[in-house]
Specification:
Distance between the termini: 32 Å
Number of strands: 6
Radius of gyration: 43 Å
Largest sheet: 2 strands, antiparallel
Helix content: 55-70%
Strand content: under 5%
Strand order of the largest sheet: 1-2
Structural class: mainly alpha
Length: 962
């Protein structure tokens, strides 16, 4: 044996060696990642390679170019040309926005919703008399000839007439976009009449109602072209009038009114052209498109023109065509004036012809097109909502009450009431909600607008209202009576959704229970719930998110039966996850109610059972976190036995998640420590048995965890808790199991996408374990320092991966920590103890045989250190070798008997080794070590030990400074 280690009593020194300086390649401020050593498999699978959550630098998402430019480029690829031009039109229209337009929802936000909702699989047709190509140019010398030529061009529509029959919706949209491009191209080529022709032909298409269900989208597509045409004309007149970009007259134009007169003449010319259009519908739409151009004539013309165009609409016989014409007129009117007289007159005219939507001739047409009346009436919603919204802005309640009264006076008024509910102020609706419900009840059996949709929108309005409705209780009773009488399950679930949200917000749990009863009654029969999972899920989400007493909701008799309606696993999983997310966010108080606990256990079991080998790591982590939170919230107070019984049930219920097992173990350990606190460390027979049961629970549960590192940590923690509670046998078993796992620990882990050695974790873990083993008394059945001997054996079996680690350096650090522990174990009194635990210092009383065993172990450990130091030299790691040799030198000086020749010689040789590479080491560290030796020499005086230290100090000084 190379060393002759003999431990001595440590002495306190006034001079301390400088702290050890370790080099690291990881910046302390660099963001770390969380490494999970949990396998994705089930319990019976072997641990797989570590999985890591990588933290990605957000700047790495770009290629070095300007991020805003990238976003703009991406956006440009996602917007079709027609939408882009329409957006440009709206941007230009902002120059003259009226306060009325600014107060309502922009049309662009509704445009996409209309196009996506109103679609068709029917074949469409386009009938036009426009022939693509440039207009013929003839020489005209007088104004009379010019006017005559342009009128002839407008009369030439019949020449080149053609039809596009049986086209799909997509082909129809592409053709409309082609019209748009031809219009812009013709305008840019100064072919103004050709552009006007296109606008007229597109307007004519709005008379076609052969496929009614597509008409709202058809209206949006064609009015986009008309908007662009109107903008082109308006911008042209602005240039002629000498306006700057800000809309003001330039100084030169102010000095000479010739330019303004030319713009006025051109503007009149455009209106004369439009007035010459023979057909009513294109004449109306094209004039409405350039309505803003009246500003070049007189500022008082807008209101008169709007009223005149409103009366023109009276000549349109088809109610669907006429209401969208009114919608377009109101839309362009809101951009030029804040006066709403024309909107009010449009509503008056609409009320006058409302009955025509239900005449027998129209019903025959609906039969031919295979449309039901509710579907047909839904086509009116976008146009009617826009008109109602424009009327509701900045309008006194007295006027709105008058409109509501007129609507209530109409027969089959469901469509009108629906638009009022969705367009008028939520508070206005809330104060009149009872009146509206009674109106719905009176027209309940009418063949018209679906009452379920109306009730749904009424409930949504009440949810957003900031004041309580009048007769609140009566309103809820009447509404629920109507909703409960709906026989169609689809209509019922549509109506109940918003009222479920409103009820959970504004009423108590008794009213929520009534909602759940209705859900069971209507959706539980004949398994109709299988056809309405999305709607049913939305209802449950609204109830759970908005209820004020979530725990009370869980205890309702019908809550769990309603939850059982979700028999499709994926849907049920989403509902249960939503419930637990709300529970985690809203519930902060502990619970011990058995009904609530059972409901939570059932919901969490659904989450747990969804985890399998294919479940991704993020989902496993989320589900584990939700279940762990629930476990922590269950608290039976001082009834510790019931608490432990709950943890036993939870362990049997949740089988697939390491996170949940770890939470249960920590909770049981906390329960054991709480028991110790209650008895102040003096366990009785009953409490002693209880804490032993807690220790047994942990010891049995830990092997079920897949991740080796997690098991090792939990064994160490559980062993410490058992030791605190004087459960020596259980503590020994935990420590032994932790040591046995060391060879199974993965050699490498993946961190931030890079494979790194696990040696740092291993070194830190062994240090923590040694601090506990120091005060753990030896088992009488195992011999002296049995656990430490087992640790040394398992360390030698650890499979270091030399590709990613420096195993020799790590082993030296571990062995140095073991030397520290052994030298402390040889002291007469240990620096810390656990009350009630007789540690080895008291157990052996510094017996010579025990000290001899410690010395033998120290000698063996020191020999292993020397072997690894040599291996470092063979690999050329001289700087690391010197640092570690210095660490061993300090321990020899402070903890061993230097009067022994082998130890003294070893110390001298180690110092020679250190100073051989002193240029690569910290000079202050070496000087501090020399100072420590000199201080120790003074403490020993003229004894043999003191002389050895004096001789050693001389040798050290010579080597250090020569």
């Amino acid at each position: 044996m190379t060393t002759d280690w003999h431990c001595i009593e440590k002495t306190a020194l006034n001079v301390k060696a400088p702290p050890r300086i370790d080099c690291t390649d990881v910046h302390p401020l660099k963001q770390a990642t969380v490494t999970m050593l949990e396998s994705k498999g089930t319990r019976n699978r072997k641990p797989s390679s570590a999985s890591v959550i990588a933290i990605i630098d957000p700047c790495e998402a770009f290629d070095g170019s300007d991020p805003l430019s990238q976003f703009a480029r991406q956006a440009s690829l996602e917007v079709d040309p027609l939408s882009q031009i329409a957006a440009d039109y709206e941007l230009g229209a902002k120059e003259t926005d009226s306060p009325l337009e600014e107060a309502i929802e922009p049309w662009s936000s509704r445009r996409s919703a209309i196009l996506s909702k109103y679609t068709t699989a029917e074949r469409l047709s386009i009938v036009t008399s426009f022939v693509s190509g440039s207009e013929s140019i003839k020489s005209q010398t007088t104004m009379t000839e010019k006017i005559k030529h342009r009128l002839e061009q407008l009369d030439d529509f019949a020449d080149g007439s053609y039809h596009l029959q049986d086209v799909t919706q997509q082909e129809y949209v592409l053709r409309i976009e082609q019209f748009n491009q031809e219009l812009v191209q013709a305008w840019n080529n100064d072919h103004r009449v050709t552009a006007l022709k296109i606008a007229i032909q597109c307007s004519k298409l709005l008379a076609d109602t052969s496929v009614m269900q597509f008409y709202p989208s058809q209206f949006v597509l064609i009015t986009d072209i008309l908007d662009i045409f109107g903008k082109l004309v308006y911008d042209r007149l602005k240039i002629k009038a000498g306006h700057t970009n800000s809309g003001r007259m330039s100084s030169s134009a102010s000095a000479n009114n010739v330019t303004a007169e030319m713009a006025k003449e051109t503007c009149l010319n455009w209106f004369y052209k439009i007035a010459s259009i023979r057909e009513l519908l294109p004449r109306f739409y094209v004039e409405a498109a350039i309505l803003k151009c009246y500003s070049f004539l007189t500022s008082t013309e807008f209101n008169q023109a709007l009223l005149r165009l409103t009366r023109i609409i009276r000549g349109i016989g088809d109610p669907l065509v006429s209401i969208y014409a009114r919608c377009y007129l109101c839309r362009v009117g809101m951009t030029v004036t804040s006066d709403k007289e024309y909107i009010r007159e449009n509503l008056t005219d609409l009320f006058a012809v409302y009955y025509t939507m239900f005449n027998p001739r129209l019903k025959n047409e609906l039969t031919r097109q295979r449309l039901e009346m509710p579907t047909y009436l839904s086509l009116y919603i976008p146009a009617l909502d826009w008109i109602m919204q424009g009327m509701a802005v900045h309008t006194p309640d007295t006027v709105l009450d008058e409109i509501l009264t007129k609507c209530l006076a109409q027969k089959n008024n469901g469509l009108l009431l629906n638009s009022i509910v969705t367009s008028f102020s939520c508070n206005f609706i809330a104060l009149r909600a009872t009146k509206i419900v009674h109106a719905v009840q009176e027209n309940w059996d009418a063949d018209g607008f679906p009452q379920a949709q109306l009730l749904r929108n009424l409930g949504s309005s009440l949810v957003m209202a900031t004041i309580d409705p009048e007769e609140k209780q009566q309103l809820w009773a009447d509404a629920m009576k109507l909703i409960g009488s709906i026989q169609n399950p689809g209509h019922f679930i549509q109506a109940i959704e918003s009222w479920a949200e409103y009820t959970s917000l504004a009423y108590n749990l008794g009213h929520v229970a009534a909602i759940l009863d209705d859900l069971l009654t209507h959706m539980g029969q004949n398994r109709v719930f299988e056809h309405h999972y999305p709607e049913l899920q939305a209802v449950m989400d609204k109830i759970v998110h908005n209820t004020k007493d979530l725990e009370g909701l869980l205890t309702l008799d019908n809550f769990m039966p309603v939850l059982d309606l979700f028999q499709k696993e994926s849907v049920k999983l989403d509902v249960c996850r939503s419930i637990m997310l709300v529970y985690k966010d809203k519930i902060e108080t502990k619970t011990s109610d058995p009904v609530t606990t059972n409901a939570l256990m059932y919901i969490c079991k659904v989450l747990n059972d969804s985890v399998n080998a294919l479940t991704v790591e993020d989902e496993r982590r989320q589900i584990g976190g939700l279940i762990s939170h629930m476990i922590k919230q269950v608290n039976f107070g001082r009834d510790f036995e019931s608490q432990l019984a709950f943890y036993v049930d939870a362990r049997a219920t949740f089988l697939n998640l390491d996170t949940v097992y770890a939470t249960l173990i920590h909770c049981v350990n906390n329960l054991a420590m709480e028991t110790r606190r209650m008895v102040r460390g003096q366990h009785s027979r009953k409490t002693g048995a209880f804490v032993r049961a807690c220790a047994a629970y942990c010891f049995i549960t830990i092997p079920s965890i897949v991740a080796v590192a997690t098991r090792m940590n939990l064994y160490l923690v559980s062993g410490n808790i058992a030791l605190q509670n004087l459960c020596l046998g259980q503590a020994d078993s935990c420590f032994e199991a932790a040591i046995q796992l060391i060879p199974e620990l993965p050699a490498v882990i993946e961190v931030e996408g890079k494979v790194k050695s696990n040696e740092m974790y291993l070194s830190g873990y062994i240090s923590s374990l040694l601090s506990t083993l120091l005060i753990t008394p030896d088992s009488p059945n195992q011999g002296v320092l049995y656990l430490l001997r087992l640790l040394l054996e398992k360390i030698r079996k650890y499979p270091f991966d030399e590709t990613y680690s420096q195993c020799e350096a790590t082993l030296v650090e571990i062995y140095l920590n073991i030397l520290d522990m052994l030298s402390t174990a040889a002291q007469e009194s240990y620096p810390y103890h656990i009350p009630g635990i007789v540690s080895n210092d008291e157990l052996y009383g510094s017996d010579g045989k025990f000290i001899a065993e410690v010395d033998v172990l120290c000698s063996k450990v020191a020999d292993q250190i020397l072997i690894n130091l040599k291996a470092l030299a063979d690999k050329g790691q001289l700087r690391i070798q010197s640092n570690l040799a210095l660490e061993l030198f300090v321990r020899i000086v402070r903890s061993t008997d230097l009067t022994r020749d082998k130890q003294y010689t070893l110390a001298v040789n180690l110092w020679n080794l250190v100073t051989r590479n002193k240029a690569q080491l910290d000079g202050k560290l070496l000087a501090g070590t020399l100072a420590m030796v000199e201080q120790t020499r003074k403490l020993h005086g003229n004894t043999l030990m003191g002389k050895r230290f004096e001789e050693l100090a001389i040798r050290m000084r010579n080597k250090l400074y020569n």
